[in-house]
Design goal:
By secondary structure, the protein is low in regular secondary structure. The chain has two helices and seven strands; from the N terminus they run αββββαβββ. The protein has a domain of about 35 residues. Helices cover about 10% and strands about 10% of the residues. The strands form three sheets. Strands 3-7-4 form a three-stranded antiparallel beta sheet, with no helix packed on it. A two-stranded antiparallel sheet has the order 1-2. The radius of gyration is 49 Å and the shape is rod-shaped. It starts with about 25 loop residues before the first helix and ends with a strand.
Length: about 210
Amino acid sequence: MTDFARNYDFSVKDGLSSGNANKLIKGSEVDAEFDDIVTMSATKADKVVPSAAGNVALLDAAGNLSDSGSTSLSFVAGTKMLFQQTAAPTGWTKVTASVDDKALRVVSGSVSSGGSVAFSTAFGTTATDSHTLSAAESGLPAHTHQITPKYNGGGVALLPTGSDGSAGVNAGAFTTTSNSTQNASSGHTHGIDLRVTYLDVIIATKD
């Protein structure tokens, strides 16, 4: 774009006396002025009348202006953005379908969606799910306990006194073991607090 700059001030010649050679206007001077006017006109964008006041003008590939039909062209129509406010700003429409209570994931490829647990559910957790350990999960292997009866002074084990108060019976010397067992546990949980702090945002589409 070239602005016009005047080369000659022809009005100065009006003050010169008749017969003064400088009072004459030369064709070369007139041509120089018109050449600059032509250059300026050829490099200026054509004016456009907008369809509504405040619309932004666009410059096309030929250098001419056209009406955009919009008061804002900072984003292309259809662009989606996040806003930390309840209502979409002017010129945008709030997206309400299939976006409530969801987290955002950054990807390097094609965008998609997934998962089955709502954001507020997953991040409202304060304990793990209850779980009962099976014998195999207890971490205690199958084992027995050895039982050695008490011997009398002669190295002979005595069975207990009978319920009727009779003397114990000499059982002879022996060693036995308990039945094999493996520990199991009742259901339990572990404390965990996933109530992460957050800010609510909306998604809006440029009109």
